[in-house]
Fold this sequence. Notes:
Layout: H1 3-12, H2 29-37, H3 43-56, H4 58-86, H5 90-98, H6 103-133, H7 137-154, H8 156-185, H9 205-214, H10 217-221, H11 224-227, H12 233-260, H13 275-281, H14 285-316, H15 320-336, H16 343-353, H17 355-367, H18 379-398, H19 404-420
Amino acid sequence: MDTALAEQHSALGEEYENQPVPLTARKSLFAVSAVWVGFPMIMTSAVFAGIVVYNLGFVMGLIAIVVGDLILMGYVGTLSYLAGRSGKNFALTAADTFGTKGFRAVSAFLSALVIGWFAFQTGMVGSTLNLSMGWSAPWITLLAGVLFVALTFVGIRAISWIGVVASVLFIPLGVVAVILAAGSAGGIGSALDYRGGAGVSAFGFGVAVTMVFACFADSGTMTADFTRWARKGREGALAAFSAFPVAYLIAQLAGALVVALGAAAAPGTAGGDFLHVLVGAGGVLVPLAIVFVFVNLGSVCAHCLYNGAVGFGNITGKTMRQLTIVLGVVGTVAAVAGIWSYFATWLNILGVLVPPIGIVLILDQLVFARRRATAAIAWKPFAAWGIGAGGALLTHFYAPQLSDAVVAMVVGGLAFTVLAYLPVRAVRPALVGETA
């Protein structure tokens, strides 16, 4: 690192890419919760909740949303408990399970996926303001990318700040959008009668649950990058609960109601996007809506870029801030090129391939820690990951009524449980210095 960058790094604060966060540097429950709460309370959550309701109807769609949220709560909450207990980021946590060299494959895979999320969300800023305001999508996307890279460069403190601002903006504007929609529909109670607008759809309950889970499967699995700053395991879990189900459900309800009340512009593709409702009302809501788009999607973009930069930083030995610039440029170029149009493919990959990773980490570190052997590449976790992903792929093609994500976790978890009881050469000693 050159002298100038080293001085910036010191002034902005240590990010502890390659070591556990020491107890003296841990943050309060409020600070860690602020990092997570502004992540799922975003327009994207409203969009896909609206698509679920459009396909299943309001009541059944809401049930699918709640089921997916509760699964995320248990999944991310448990991983966050591990992070708060150890202070380790995702890469360091994965090294304990997948091996001192094997973790690189897992960390690189998830870090690459989350940079795809950064590109998608950055592109969504341009496309959203193009549809609502008629502005140039490529130029707005480029501007958004530069702003989001700068924000992430500051580090965890800036991400905490924008998370609070994003949630503070979302709640009143979401409520206003729902009130405007209800006024046109004859009352909010009419949402209960919405039976969906997709007609005879192959979009089943299991697909809906997978979509709800998959929206945050990647960063949810990498939650340790955020919750390692918690003072103890319990506070790490509580910080995650503030996001799943609380913040996530608030955003989903806004999108679901906008669709069920008939105010969505394109419910089958844009779901519960309510920006046009605010812009259509005119007045002060127009500039507020524009600021809202940048802040709201800027929150999730900063989170994703931070995940990717910390992950690749641990693999390459570079700092989070160095990788933020490199990956931010790559993601912004991809966004300007229109990467968000491939979003359905991202969801399928996430739903099938990511969940077994988290389940293997949970079982290995909470249930079978004393049976773990030190290895450069631990084959059992990789085998269980592959078996879980394979089971989910079979489900996707031959039993689409089920949830790929749930099957991936169940099959991967069962596979790892069986493999864990196979003989090991050496037993890893208990970890020292962890707090419950």
